[in-house]
Design brief:
Blueprint (H helix, E strand, L loop, with lengths): L5 E4 L8 H6 L4 E8 L10 H10 L3 E7 L1
Parallel strand pairs: 1-2, 2-3
Length: 66
């Protein structure tokens, strides 16, 4: 079975260099898309983190915390 290292990110985290994350051997990111019952409760860093991770070729997953 293959093993991959992933990091879980939300607005509580600060990642400034996604290329450094990839170069450190991290396979991808799991992003919190939001929380609660309302679409308005989207994680404020989701779009920023998604765009940055995609730009460097990291694999991306997402979840809604409720």
């Amino acid at each position: 079975m293959a093993e991959f290292q992933l990091i879980d990110l939300s607005h509580h985290n600060s990642v400034f260099d996604f290329l450094a994350v990839k170069n450190a051997g991290i396979y991808g990111v799991i992003l919190r898309a939001g929380y609660g019952r309302e679409a308005s409760q989207k994680d404020r860093k989701f779009d920023e983190f998604y765009t940055a991770a995609k730009a460097v070729g990291l694999h991306i997953g997402a979840y809604w915390y409720s």
